[in-house]
Q: What sequence folds into this?
């Protein structure tokens, strides 16, 4: 969408279907060029001045229509579409898709196997908490995980609400084998900000890079 006009994705915005399709086509070209098999299909914002409850039905219907179209396009390219709930308490008060429950219900209505849940644990904690149960419940739908500490959105080992060593071990026990996106703002530089990962590997008996010391 048009970021300068305040848009943050278009998939659930009524009347913007043509622009959504154009954006999707461009995103597929970029994804092909860099070899990325997943594309985040951003829902977009409730129109400025509109009552969320009053427009929810029309926005969900638009979202479902666009997601089905996107799923068919992405299936031809062997790609996965992702939808991400973004909290409306801190990050974006007008974003349409806010909770994993809402996302799961919409994905069920869309009914396409190549559409998955992009679960950012930062947003999930702010909106609902109950992370262990939510990860277990929605695990079959998850196509990508993102992490950041709450509430500062910094490194996982920065002060905050979330116990990331526990969460990462839970993901391993559930059988998650995908990437984990570090969607946080480092307090310092990038290398310094990745110190938590080196510490985690060492606590798990691994070399830097995730290789087992026993295997070495």
A:
């Amino acid at each position: 969408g048009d970021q300068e006009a305040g848009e943050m994705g278009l998939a659930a915005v009524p009347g913007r279907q043509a622009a959504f399709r154009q954006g999707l086509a461009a995103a597929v070209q970029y994804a092909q060029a860099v070899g990325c098999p997943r594309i985040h299909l951003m829902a977009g914002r409730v129109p400025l001045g509109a009552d969320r409850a009053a427009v929810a039905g029309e926005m969900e219907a638009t979202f479902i229509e666009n997601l089905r179209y996107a799923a068919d396009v992405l299936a031809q390219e062997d790609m996965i579409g992702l939808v991400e709930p973004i909290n409306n308490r801190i990050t974006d008060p007008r974003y349409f898709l806010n909770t994993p429950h809402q996302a799961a219900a919409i994905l069920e209505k869309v009914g396409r196997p190549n559409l998955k849940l992009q679960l950012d644990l930062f947003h999930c904690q702010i909106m609902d908490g109950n992370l262990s149960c939510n990860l277990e419940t929605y695990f079959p739908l998850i196509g990508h995980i993102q992490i950041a500490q709450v509430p500062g959105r910094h490194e996982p080992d920065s002060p905050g609400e979330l116990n990331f060593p526990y969460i990462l071990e839970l993901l391993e026990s559930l059988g998650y084998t995908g990437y984990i996106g570090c969607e946080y703002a480092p307090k310092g530089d990038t290398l310094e900000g990745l110190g938590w990962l080196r510490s985690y590997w060492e606590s798990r008996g691994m070399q830097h890079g995730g290789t087992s010391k026993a295997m070495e």
